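Hi D.,

Good news: the full-assembly prediction came through. Inputs first.
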Amino acid sequence: MHTSAFASVADVQERLSAAGYLTDHAIATTVFLADRLGKPLLVEGPAGVGKTELAKAVAEATGAELIRLQCYEGLDEARALYEWNYKKQLLRIQASKDDDAWDAIHDDVFAEEFLLSRPLLTAIRRTEPTVLLIDETDKADVEVEGLLLEVLSDFQVTIPELGTISATRRPIVFLTSNATRELSEALKRRCLYLHLDYPAADREKAIVLSRVPEVGEQLAEQLVRTVRALRALELKKSPSIAESIDWAHTLVALGLDTLDEKAVGDTLGVVLKHASDHARATDQLKLN
Amino acid sequence: MAVEGGLLGREIAFFDALREAGVPVALSEVIDATRAMGVVDLLDREALRQAFAATAVKRPHHRPTFDRLFDLWWPAVTGEPTPVDAEGTPAEGDGDGEVDRDALRDALRELLLTGDEDAMRRFAREAVATLGRSDGAGGRQNWFSYRVLRGLSPETLVSSLLDALLAGQQRGGLAEKVARQTVQERIRQFQEMVEAEVRRRLAEDRGVEQISRTAVQPLSEQVDFLRASRDDMAELRRQVFPLARRLATRLTARRRLGRSGKLDFRRTVRASLGTGGVPLVTHHKPHKPHKPELTVLCDVSGSVAGFAHFTLMLSYALREQFTKVRAFAFIDTCDEVTRFFTPGGDVADALARMSAEADLVWFDGHSDYGHSIEEFAKRYPDAVGPRTSLLILGDARNNYRATGVPALKKLVAQARHAYWLNPEPAAYWGSGDSAVTQYGEVIEMVECRNAVQLEDFVQKLLPG
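Then the structure:
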């Protein structure tokens, strides 16, 4: 029922980097385990460290299709799992002649044709390799977690009118969360857990270089060190990888080849998004 | 007690130690960890570490505890370090007991400059073996990290490292700041490696269970405000905004679950068009939450300043949950400090400015609750009204002065809610110069020793 997509941890690392995602040993091991044990992987961490990217890269590396369920406040079963297309059902009933037996219509109206499949059901029914990404799980309401528990522990869905649908091929499941609230213990227990944090200096430099090769070894090194110095300050929002990459793009676009006080001062807005953080960095890094 | 039962026994004992350190590990997670052990390469220690972490540690703040215990229970090496000199690490002393410190320091400088972690770890191992040992009583060996760190004193290398890293660039500017950050990070890394190695050596001597118990530091959210070190406080400050965000999300969720407002006629009719004019689903206007006004009156004298600062920061981070936040600080007299907290401004700066500029001392700079409360009631009669939640922060240690209970009683009667948050353990209340007993008669006194208790309280304070 479950076939493994990766042969070894090294294989994960290699194929993900071929897909443009540079992992470290911890990330690769966890992805490998999620695949081997057939368990969902909960990825938590600050915004912009590449949680969603990881799922995308795994989909690309395994040649699977990515099915994404974006969570938001008020997300419900009808949007996450399945829904009956009642307008079409209504049409079908109105179109039928008066002498049609009710039983016939009833069976007809609750057929596959009138079922609107939403991401969770779609992922379960697919026979080809699939990566299911449940994005920003913490934004959804607590009830959705109950639904996820049911779907993710057995990989089956019961539709009263149609019966139980089980996965023919288990998708690799990623859940991401910004930790705006604690997810329930029950959900966490069923998942493997990976905390993605700001990367080590070497890895961050490699990421910046792979995304913005024009930036050059020297400048990338400077940039990464400066970003790390910024992270050491007490800021409201520390710059993440996404911001480092943006910064590299900016420096390249401006044609700057060294990161001195003036360059940092001019482009600080790319990495720091709060006025107070800006003021603090300017003051503490002695930019003026 | 020896650990029995081979690999599995060791694994289970390790998870027991984790539980004892306060990391909750469920049985199903142990089973997952065991399955995970079966699929990773057991010779790859980091893979094993990650396998255990992924299956059993589901909160980032438990990770340091986990790592520490993992290093103890699954050490990378046992016994004496084998001097690996392929990279030419000149770690061996010349002769017995005579250690060539300068050579060691030069080697360390080189390592800190390159930042090669593996080499640094190897070096830490050897440094502990040569410098950290002292023979204790009864043929036992003691290992001390301070001996190693004092012997090598990596801090004194900073300036020469900076010179090398800056490579001729000017000092004093951004470049130095950045280089300094890099150097300090690496030195801290090295110190941690030395400490980990010392724990490993001790564990070999004393048994891993005993060392496990002392190796674990309390989680920052459970650190007592009154005992928090500077690092603890910095860590707590870092957590203010995530904490505020978590609280706010939980509150909105609670509000939404509560009753919804009046029928939204227009949206209901509009939606009914889709179902042939039959209003299958009714729509409601959102319920407007009641937002209280918050007035915080806090003791910022030395003993409780950390607590007051943290709580002030949290109330400002939660600003949107209140219609108005006003803050007053006192030591022996009271001043309004709201002006220092501008929207979008930096709260840490605000706190620094508050201590420097606000007028808080009237007589001798020792806490005087009585005078401060009376002064507050007299000078700011508009601060506490029928919609105000009044929070008083302090340990109520009044230096045996007049308590001003009547004034406080009047304030409490004016306010909608009034609470006193006390960072002292409830067991000490009323002892010595603590005036908790007197104040407790007119206002509800709440024990608030750590971030967890504060979080619980704020959740109770804000209406759903």
